[in-house]
């Protein structure tokens, strides 16, 4: 089964971005940072999410991110589906921290259960076909709105969402231009219909 081995964030100040991620989230080998001066404006077309077991962990991770220099896009709040909030890292990457649980069952912790890469795509059905052709297996599918692929032992899950809907969920305007400033390691090399670049796992590991 095709999977993601790691995400590489491209940042103008790579050392500063590395310090932020190590301090805020402690993602280990799931996420790497490399320098890039590629121009980008507005929404980059993707978000990264950390799903956790309880609201206290949402607060712990968001507080750590804000203390390390992130800014709030959506404060953590309760909703019908659970509890969560969205922040933007200093390098511009948008992170959503969320849980489906509505009550705490343990002391607060910065631990998380899953890391999810959510790509905002122009045509969910077309992108779904593309990724199944690359060897991905569909886990959940909700028509032309949302698709989640099975992750197996992958450290990062992959999902697709309509571009405008993802921007709205993140709390930003959908307009954006320039580089996504992200490279996905594992199944590549190829570029998907929305311009997201995938690299071979060996190249991603060397970045």
The poorly predicted ranges are: none
| CA-based gyration radius | 16 Å
Name the overall outline: globular
* pLDDT averaged residue by residue: 94
Quaternary arrangement of the chains shown?
single chain
Side-by-side strand order of the widest sheet:
5-6-7-4-8-11-10-9
Question: How would you characterize this protein structure?
Answer:
Helix 1 (14-24) runs antiparallel to helix 2 (55-67). The protein has a single domain, classed as Roll (2,3-Dihydroxybiphenyl 1,2-Dioxygenase, domain 1), CATH 3.10.180. Strand 1 (6-11), helix 1 and strand 2 (31-35) form a beta-alpha-beta unit. The protein is built from five helices and 14 strands. The protein is globular. Strands 5-6-7-4-8-11-10-9 form an eight-stranded mixed β-sheet. It is an alpha/beta fold and 207 residues long. The model has no long low-confidence stretch (mean pLDDT 94). The two termini are 24 Å apart. It has helices at 14-24, 55-67, 124-133, 163-170, 201-206; strands at 6-11, 31-35, 40-42, 46-51, 71-78, 83-88, 94-99, 114-121, 138-142, 146-149, 157-162, 176-178, 182-191, 197-200.
List keywords for this structure.
207 residues, alpha/beta, 2,3-Dihydroxybiphenyl 1,2-Dioxygenase, domain 1, four-stranded mixed β-sheet, 23% helix, globular
Compact description:
This protein is α/β, with parallel strands linked by helices. It has helices at 14-24, 55-67, 124-133, 163-170, 201-206, and strands at residues 6-11, 31-35, 40-42, 46-51, 71-78, 83-88, 94-99, 114-121, 138-142, 146-149, 157-162, 176-178, 182-191, 197-200. The chain has one domain (6-206): 2,3-Dihydroxybiphenyl 1,2-Dioxygenase, domain 1 (Roll).
């Amino acid at each position: 089964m095709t999977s993601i081995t790691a995400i590489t964030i491209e940042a103008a100040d790579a050392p500063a971005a590395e310090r932020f991620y190590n301090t805020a989230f402690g993602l280990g080998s799931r996420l790497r940072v490399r320098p890039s001066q590629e121009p980008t404006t507005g929404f980059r077309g993707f978000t990264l999410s950390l799903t956790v077991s309880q609201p206290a962990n949402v607060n712990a991770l968001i507080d750590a991110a804000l203390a390390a220099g992130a800014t709030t896009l959506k404060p953590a709040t309760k909703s019908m589906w659970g509890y969560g909030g969205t922040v933007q890292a200093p390098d511009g990457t948008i992170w959503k921290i969320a849980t489906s649980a509505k009550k705490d069952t343990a002391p607060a912790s910065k631990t998380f259960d899953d890391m999810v890469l959510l790509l905002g795509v122009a045509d969910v059905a077309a992108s779904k076909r593309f990724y199944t052709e690359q060897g991905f297996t569909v886990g959940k599918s909700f028509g032309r709105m949302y698709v989640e692929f099975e992750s197996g032992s992958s450290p990062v899950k992959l999902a697709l969402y309509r571009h405008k809907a993802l921007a709205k969920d993140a709390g930003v305007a959908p307009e954006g231009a320039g580089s996504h400033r992200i490279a996905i390691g594992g199944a590549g090399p190829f570029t998907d219909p929305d311009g997201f670049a995938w690299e071979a796992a060996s190249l991603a590991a060397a970045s």
